């Protein structure tokens, strides 16, 4: 096709799909929609060539930042509300299960496996408040789920995750715990503080361009897995934290807000947090998708 026009270029590009090699129906679906939306966006804003070149340079700079320590594209997706949207589309609620939210870029595989109640805290920070977190892992009929793995991670009182802070020990404030025969889990951690997502480099450039801010409310990440149940990636938010209503990545859900209460006299931690998780049955969840 020669001499494409503003009016026909979208159809011409869509027509080229699968012309010279077979493509799967899902590939076609994704590419057709991507081309339509991308062309629609360029037309909507009447994108200039300078802006197009700037975007190419920007994406190149974002890619160059990616390493095993930093996944810039997850961060950009979070700032644009894409990760929270994809999470809601991938994990529709089909019953009473606990709501999921974004994974974010700070998860690390292979956190230390710890006995029930153990502490993830390897380094003391002045002013930190310790918390005993406990609850039950349940199915959607309220029955306990023993043997579930609860993978937890959070930021330190300086607002940094351990893998972004050379002053913290490896895997500080991370751990994996298992629910017992009654479905009960427990671990000791610290009260998470609000923190800024990385606001330097291309993520910061995007936030500033949007006139938004970097802050997230205090939260503990928890990923709960057990064969036969839909994996749950979630976060528990501190009910008394700032930024619950203006999270930079739009990931706060009312049902994930927990109250950090003063611990009873004689307890080993300053605070206690009680939070139960209900897992969706894998087969039922797949049927609802
Ligand atoms: C986090 O909660 O760790 C997070 C989520 C999205 C972007 C940045 C951080
Ligand atoms: Fe986080």
Automatic annotation (TrEMBL):
<dbReference type="InterPro" id="IPR050770">
    <property type="entry name" value="Intradiol_RC_Dioxygenase"/>
</dbReference>
<dbReference type="GO" id="GO:0018576">
    <property type="term" value="F:catechol 1,2-dioxygenase activity"/>
</dbReference>
<feature type="domain" description="Intradiol ring-cleavage dioxygenases">
    <location>
        <begin position="133"/>
        <end position="161"/>
    </location>
</feature>
<comment type="similarity">
    <text>Belongs to the intradiol ring-cleavage dioxygenase family.</text>
</comment>
<dbReference type="GO" id="GO:0008199">
    <property type="term" value="F:ferric iron binding"/>
</dbReference>
<dbReference type="InterPro" id="IPR007535">
    <property type="entry name" value="Catechol_dOase_N"/>
</dbReference>
<dbReference type="GO" id="GO:0009712">
    <property type="term" value="P:catechol-containing compound metabolic process"/>
</dbReference>
<keyword id="KW-0560">Oxidoreductase</keyword>
<dbReference type="Pfam" id="PF04444">
    <property type="entry name" value="Dioxygenase_N"/>
</dbReference>
<keyword id="KW-0223">Dioxygenase</keyword>
<protein>
    <submittedName>
        <fullName>Dioxygenase</fullName>
    </submittedName>
</protein>
<dbReference type="Pfam" id="PF00775">
    <property type="entry name" value="Dioxygenase_C"/>
</dbReference>
<keyword id="KW-0479">Metal-binding</keyword>
<dbReference type="InterPro" id="IPR000627">
    <property type="entry name" value="Intradiol_dOase_C"/>
</dbReference>
<keyword id="KW-0408">Iron</keyword>
<dbReference type="InterPro" id="IPR015889">
    <property type="entry name" value="Intradiol_dOase_core"/>
</dbReference>
């Amino acid at each position: 096709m020669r001499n494409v026009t503003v009016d026909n270029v979208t159809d011409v590009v869509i027509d080229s799909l699968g012309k010279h090699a077979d493509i799967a129906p899902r590939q076609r679906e994704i590419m057709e929609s991507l081309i339509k939306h991308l062309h629609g966006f360029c037309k909507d804003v009447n994108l200039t060539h300078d802006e197009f070149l700037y975007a190419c340079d920007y994406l190149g700079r974002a890619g160059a930042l990616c390493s095993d320590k930093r996944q810039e594209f997850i961060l950009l997706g979070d700032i644009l509300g894409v990760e929270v949207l994809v999470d809601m589309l991938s994990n529709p609620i089909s019953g009473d299960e606990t709501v999921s939210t974004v994974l974010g870029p700070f998860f690390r595989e292979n956190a230390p496996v710890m006995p029930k109640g153990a502490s993830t805290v390897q380094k003391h920070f002045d002013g930190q408040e310790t918390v005993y977190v406990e609850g039950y892992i349940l199915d959607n009929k309220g029955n306990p789920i023993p043997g579930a793995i609860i993978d937890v991670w959070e930021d330190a009182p300086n607002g940094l995750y351990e893998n972004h802070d050379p002053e913290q020990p490896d895997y500080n404030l991370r751990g994996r715990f298992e629910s017992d025969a009654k479905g009960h889990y427990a671990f000791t951690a610290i009260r998470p503080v609000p923190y800024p997502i990385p606001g330097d480099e291309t993520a910061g450039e995007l936030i500033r361009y949007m006139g938004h801010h970097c802050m997230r409310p205090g939260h503990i990440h928890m990923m709960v897995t057990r064969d036969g149940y839909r994996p749950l990636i979630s976060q528990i938010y501190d009910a008394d934290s700032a930024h619950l209503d203006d999270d930079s990545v739009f990931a706060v859900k009312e049902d994930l807000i927990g109250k950090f209460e003063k611990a009873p006299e004689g307890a080993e931690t300053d605070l206690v947090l009680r939070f139960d998780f209900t897992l969706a049955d894998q087969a039922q969840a797949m049927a609802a998708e």
